[in-house]
Design goal:
The chain has one domain. Helix content is 35%, strand content 0%. It contains 3 helices and no strands.
Length: 69
């Protein structure tokens, strides 16, 4: 059962999302920011995501917000 009694399918990426926190954010940004500018460009994100193993998915990082009117 999902939020507020709404049925939601299980999130297959939930295990990964819980590991992406402030303690691990800096190493993740260092892996993405090739030139160490402190800014992450669209090109850097595209290169980073394209370099993942073929059988790996990208984790969907978003909040599911359900409201009841």
């Amino acid at each position: 059962m999902g939020i507020a009694g709404i049925n939601c399918p299980p999130d297959p990426d939930a295990w990964a999302v819980k590991y992406i926190d402030t303690a691990r954010l800096n190493p993740i940004l260092e892996a993405v920011d090739n030139v160490a500018s402190g800014f992450v460009t669209i090109g850097e994100i595209n290169r980073f995501t394209a370099s993942r193993p073929v059988d790996w998915r990208l984790v969907a990082l978003h909040k599911r917000v359900h409201s009841i009117s």
